[in-house]
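To the wet lab folks,

You asked to see what we're planning to order before we commit. Fair enough. Below is the target structure as C-alpha cells, and below that is the sequence we designed to fit it. If anything looks off to you, flag it before the synthesis order goes out.
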C-alpha cells in the first residue's frame, strides 16, 4: 500500500479525479488530495475530503493559522505525486518551478516519482508552449500519462481527453512497483534506426523514431540503473544522467554494441538496424544528369544480436520484432530462439496508430516461460512492462 498525493487542477476533467482516487483506494492505496484554486470551481473540496477521509489541501496558508509548513509535511509523507487532471496552467507552473500555490510548492518539495495526466482543449495541448513544458517535465523524469483522442467537453474533436482513470491508476502502480528495481545495474539500450549512405547526402533508412528505446532508457534510469543509449539518428530530447553514444550506421552500432556489451547487465536492442547497405557508398553527390538510371547493389550487414550470442555471460538480452501482419507473432517467437534472446518484444507494424513514430504501442512480450499480450498503451507504459519482465531474469 502506498501513500499517493493526488493533485487536482482546474478543468472539466476534475470530476474524473474522483474515479482515479476511488480506483487507487480500491487497490489498497491511501490518497491525499491537493486542489488548485480553479479545480475548486469544478469540484468542491468537501467531495474529495469525504471520499478520501482526509483533509484536502487547498492553499498555502491554512484557515486555522497553522504554521505554514503543510506543503513539506504533505511531500514527506507521500510515495508518489500524481497530478490528474494536469491543466496547461499547472504544467506550466510545474515546468517553471513556481511555488505560489500549494500544489506547486508540494511539487518542488517532493523528491519522489511524479506522474502527470494532462487534460485540456486540443489546441492548448498542441501549443508549442505546452509541448515544451511537457518535454521539460519528461526530461526531469516526470511520467506522462498521455491524454486520449476523442470528443472533448468543448465540442472539439482531438487529443486532450484525460486518460482513462483505470489507465492512470495502472501507471501509478507500475511506477511504484518499479522504483529502485534496477539500482546498480548497467543497462544498454539501442534506439532509433540506422542509415546506410548511398552517397554523401543520401541514405537507405527506416521509419524508426527512437521513441520506444528512449522510453526504455528513461524508465531504466528512474529505476536506478546506469544507462547507456546507443542512438541511431534520434532527434528526441536527451535525458540528463544518461550516457549517449552516436551510432548512425549499422556498422557503427555493431561496434558500439560490442564495446558496451561486456560490461552491462541488460541489453535492450530496440534499434531498427538496416539488414542491407549499399555495397560501396559513392564519394560526393551522385549527379542525376550524368547517371540516367542505375542500380544500387546492397550487401548484408552483420546481425548484431547474432554476433553477441557467443559472447553472452550473465546479461539479460532483449530484442524487438516489428513484424507485419498476423503471422508475425510466430516469426517473433522463432526469432527469439534463433537469436538466443531472453525476451523479444513483438509489435505488428501493419496496425494504425502504433509503432513507428507514434506515442503508443501494442506489444507482446515473449520469453522462454510464456508470453504476455498487452493492450494498446503509451510507449512509457510499455517500457515499464518490458522492464518488469527483465527484472526477475537478472542474477541476484
Ligand atoms: N538486429 C540486429 N542486427 C541486425 C538486424 C537486427 O541486432 N543487423 C536486432 C534488432 O535490433 C531487433 C532484432 O534484431 O532487436 C530483430 O530485428 P529484425 O530486423 O526483426 O530481425 P532480422 O534478423 O532482420 O529478421 P528478419 O529475418 O525478419 O529480417
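Sequence we intend to order:
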Amino acid at each position: 500500500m502506498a501513500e499517493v498525493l493526488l493533485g487536482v487542477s482546474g478543468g472539466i476533467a476534475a470530476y474524473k479525479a474522483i474515479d482515479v482516487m476511488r480506483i487507487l483506494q480500491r487497490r489498497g492505496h491511501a490518497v491525499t488530495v491537493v486542489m488548485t484554486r480553479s479545480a475548486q470551481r469544478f469540484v468542491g473540496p468537501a467531495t474529495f475530503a469525504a471520499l478520501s477521509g482526509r483533509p484536502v489541501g487547498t492553499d498555502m496558508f491554512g484557515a486555522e493559522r497553522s504554521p505554514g509548513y503543510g506543503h513539506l509535511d504533505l511531500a514527506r509523507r507521500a510515495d508518489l505525486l500524481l497530478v490528474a487532471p494536469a491543466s496547461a496552467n499547472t504544467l506550466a507552473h510545474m515546468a517553471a518551478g513556481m511555488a505560489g500555490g500549494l500544489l506547486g510548492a508540494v511539487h518542488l518539495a517532493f523528491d519522489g516519482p511524479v506522474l502527470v495526466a494532462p487534460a485540456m482543449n486540443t489546441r492548448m495541448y498542441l501549443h508549442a508552449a505546452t509541448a515544451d513544458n511537457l518535454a521539460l517535465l519528461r526530461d526531469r523524469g516526470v511520467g506522462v500519462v498521455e491524454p486520449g483522442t476523442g470528443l472533448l467537453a468543448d465540442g472539439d474533436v482531438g487529443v486532450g481527453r484525460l486518460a482513462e482513470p483505470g489507465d492512470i491508476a495502472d501507471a501509478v502502480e507500475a511506477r511504484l512497483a518499479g522504483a529502485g528495481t534496477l539500482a546498480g545495474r548497467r543497462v544498454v539500450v539501442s534506439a532509433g534506426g540506422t542509415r546506410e549512405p548511398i552517397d554523401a547526402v543520401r541514405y537507405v533508412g527506416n521509419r524508426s523514431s527512437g521513441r520506444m528505446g528512449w522510453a526504455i532508457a528513461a524508465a531504466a534510469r528512474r529505476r536506478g540503473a546506469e544507462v547507456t543509449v546507443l542512438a541511431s539518428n534520434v532527434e528526441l530530447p536527451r535525458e540528463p544522467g544518461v550516457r549517449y553514444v552516436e551510432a548512425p550506421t549499422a556498422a557503427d552500432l555493431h561496434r558500439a554494441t560490442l564495446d558496451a556489451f561486456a560490461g552491462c547487465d541488460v541489453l535492450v536492442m530496440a534499434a531498427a538496424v538496416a539488414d542491407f547497405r549499399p555495397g560501396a557508398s559513392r564519394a560526393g553527390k551522385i549527379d542525376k544528369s550524368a547517371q540516367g538510371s542505375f542500380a544500387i547493389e546492397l550487401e548484408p550487414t552483420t546481425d548484431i544480436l547474432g554476433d553477441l550470442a557467443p559472447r553472452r555471460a550473465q546479461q539479460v538480452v532483449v530484442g524487438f520484432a516489428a513484424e507485419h501482419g498476423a503471422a508475425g507473432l510466430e516469426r517473433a517467437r522463432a526469432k527469439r530462439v534463433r537469436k538466443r534472446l531472453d525476451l523479444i518484444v513483438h509489435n505488428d507494424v501493419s496496425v494504425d496508430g502504433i509503432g513507428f513514430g507514434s506515442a503508443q504501442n501494442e506489444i507482446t512480450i515473449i520469453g522462454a516461460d510464456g508470453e504476455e499480450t498487452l493492450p494498446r498503451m503509451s510507449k512509457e507504459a510499455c517500457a515499464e512492462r518490458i522492464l518488469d519482465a527483465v527484472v526477475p531474469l537478472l542474477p541476484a
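Structural context that might help your review: The pocket of cytidine-5'-triphosphate is lined by residues 250, 269, 271, 273, 275, 301, 303-305, 319-321, 335 (CB under 6 Å). The mean pLDDT is 92.

Thanks,
Computational group
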